[in-house]
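Our consortium's second objective concerns turning raw sequence data into structural hypotheses that experimental partners can test. To show how far this objective has progressed, the report includes one record in full. It was chosen at random from the queue rather than selected for favorable results. The single chain below, 459 residues long, was entered without modification.
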Amino acid sequence: MPSRPYMTGYRPRRMPTLKTPTNTAPENIFWVPIEARWATLQVVAKTPAIGQKVDDAMVTIERENASLKGVLPKDYGRPDLDKTRLGELIDLIGTIALGDQQSKSQDVLGQVYEYFLGQFASAEGKKGGQFYTPARVVQLLVEMLEPYKGRVYDPCCGSGGMFVQSEKFVVAHGGKVDDLSVYGQESNPTTWRLCKMNLAIRGIDGNLGRKAADTFRENQHRDLRADFILANPPFNMSEWAAGDYESDPRWQYDVPPKGNANFAWVQHMIYHLNLTGRAGFILSNGSMSTNTNSEGAIRRKLIEADLVGCMVALPPQLFSNTQIPVCLWFINRRKPAQRHGQTLFIDARSMGQMVNRTLRELTDDEMTRITSAYHAWRTGEGEYADAAGFCKSAMLDEISGHGFVLTPGRYVGAADVEDDGEPFAEKMATLTAQLRDQFAESARLEGIIKENLARLGYD
């Protein structure tokens, strides 16, 4: 818990009535009562009662923040938990400077929570993808979709990163966060609670359904028709269908294969868009070209229905939990008149910089290049032009000619190579001289290796 009585968040739409008569906290806060604040717990950190004190603090926070009722863990008082270690952890975290001046950050607690989500996701490896999508990937989705106003839905919301980034986008662009309504669903009970906490500490009032539940088997937002959908559904999920799933009204473009849920997710999201709604979501690269079972037929029908607005091929190693190459799909229920029958392809596979040995991130300039090209193409606000090796606006007949495959590399072609002005004959002379030297060096090294092997008796 923070040492201050409250942390400024983005906004709560319905703040609960607080029972503490001396509470004069402003709006847009996550309220932490005195007995639940970190400084209070630190006083008793080295006592045997620390576990029960933490549990009591959780109960108090739930009482003062209605959206967290029944969500926070309350098992720190159990006998098998080492209370000495728990107290040491509390003391250790208490030494971390989170920034006490409100001017430094308007969302310190939220930033700390997001940081630990990312660290836990990295430590969990593949399992981490169940609740966390890298912030830069989410930011790219949001910047392209631009959810200024309306209903935002995520059918597999994990820890709520799509919602948080949507709210940040509105704030950054001077909009009114109260113009957004948040809806989500998550099947994993622990992850569902993580999302509830993530939204609560930022003051975001989201409808996550009555409980954690499977989106396909127990659709808790059956009547929702959203303005925007953002999602990172589980890739290539095989065990998803149950019962008489073939007759589900969501399968408007064909029944998805029982062994892969990719196009079940796609059709579920299209079903929940309103007549002018737009969706942006992450799928594995196989979704752009596979013809297994009914997948190719579904993709063809989506293209012929003029629903696919943009495809973005992303670089590898953006995710700490999977090496599966991924892409972004953008679905548009009602394209602008000048873009009817067209799809924009963006190839960003060569972009990104390594931030450590295994993880890559898109730079700010690269993010801007992608989003600017998309917005200029979609809205006509700005000058759009095809760029070899990067982007191409393709008509339906061209996509049909490629067998309704949506892989951007098939359309954008190769990037133009800048002419360095050196005459061809001179360039060939230079290159052949370099090659001759390299052959000579190769022969020298081969001789050394053979000598060493001979000394070891492997002539």
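The partners drew two points from this record. Residues 284 and 326 are 4 Å apart (CA to CA). The longest strand covers residues 273-284. Both points have been shared with the crystallography group to help prioritize constructs.
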